[in-house]
Amino acid sequence: MVRECIRAGKYHFSPIMIVEIPKSKGVTDEAAIRSSTSPVTDRLIQQALSLMLVQLFDPIFSESSYLYHPARSANPSRPYRP
After folding, report:
1. What's the alpha-carbon Rg for the chain, to the nearest Å?
2. Domain ranges within the chain, ordered by starting residue
3. Residue 18 is inside which H or E element, if any?
4. Domain of life here (predicted)?
5. Nearest-angstrom CA–CA distance, 41 and 23
6. Tens-place pLDDT, residues 20-78
7. Which of 8, 17, 54, 55 is nearest to 36 (CA)?
8. How many angstroms separate the CA atoms of 69 and 54, rounded?
9. Which are the contacts of 10, defined by CB distance < 8 A and separation ≥ 6?
10. pLDDT at residue 4, as a whole number
11. Which of 12, 46, 51, 82 has the fewest CB atoms within 10 Å, counting from its CB?
């Protein structure tokens, strides 16, 4: 069912609810909470898209670019450790 919705362009990710969490000294942080019954489906689709996009775009990134390479450290002197 999910596959058919995606192929038809009718799948919509579940909305999120922004909640303010009070911290010390009157400061608040915002947290995003999924308001759906199927956050696992959303995450699965996001991961699948991420894998596809990495395979598509990783070969064209510059070798000196570390920001978007999933298997590289932002600091070239530090090796990547998964």
Report:
1. 18
2. 2-60
3. strand 16-22
4. Bacteria
5. 32
6. 999 988 899 999 887 766 778 888 898 999 889 888 887 787 776 666 666 666 665 55
7. 17
8. 8
9. none
10. 92
11. 82
